[in-house]
Write a structure and sequence with these properties.
Bound molecules: copper (II) ion
CATH class: Mainly Beta
CATH architecture: Sandwich
Structural class: mainly beta
CATH topology: Immunoglobulin-like
Strand content: 35-45%
Number of strands: 18
Helix content: 10-25%
Shape: globular
Largest sheet: 5 strands, mixed
Number of domains: 1
Length: 255
Amino acid sequence: MQQRNLWTVFSMLVLASAVACGGGSDSSSDAPAAAPAAPAFDPATAGNVSGMVMLNGELPAAEDLMMNSDPVCAMSATDTQSGTFVGSDGHLGNVFVYVKEGLEGQRFPAATGTVELNQQGCRYTPHVMGIQVGQTFEIVNSDPTLHNIHATPAANDEFNMGQPIQGMRFERTFDSVEVMVPFKCDVHGWMNAYIGVLDHPYFAVTAADGMFDISTLPPGDYVIEAWHEALGTQTQNVSVATGQTAEVSFSFTAP
Ligand SMILES: [Cu+2]
């Protein structure tokens, strides 16, 4: 009992000294000057960018992935089509569209919601996605087989981890802007995915109809880039005005 009281007193002393130190450092005149805060962005002044990614020519037939090397995959996969060429009626999906230039000097806190890269049916879902620097994303194995997730970034830290058991999950973040971070599975050579890492939340991935929306942008002049894993990148300049939606379209040529 006596020992417990001593611990209580000790804990209070530690707490008190921590508070005192915290308060003292603020008033120190030797403290380095903090970086100037970026001007606060008022969402009431925002505008939007929306548009479409088109494909000139015929959409290549989706590659039918051969999953025979893993009987679990061969038996359970419901979708065996590669995600590289997805689209309909001249529109292109799985294109990462984002603000490449124009937001320099502005700070946007990382989104707090966790996004998921799922391994399901021996494919990655989604095939293309975006996150912010510092934002947590979760890698999940939904299959009753071993996946080995291998990120091969250029600007961020590489990692390579096995998930042998269905239901396993782990969390990761990236520290640097990178478009795009490739992912592959070292067990199943057909599995690949791409994650765009940005220091702002202004990105989208086109669905099969090629449409995208990037909303609540500060007014300004921007370079918008569209990235496709096989067809490369294209850029467009756009001016965003308060309360307006600027239309932008991209057109890739089929291989
Ligand atoms: Cu795998």
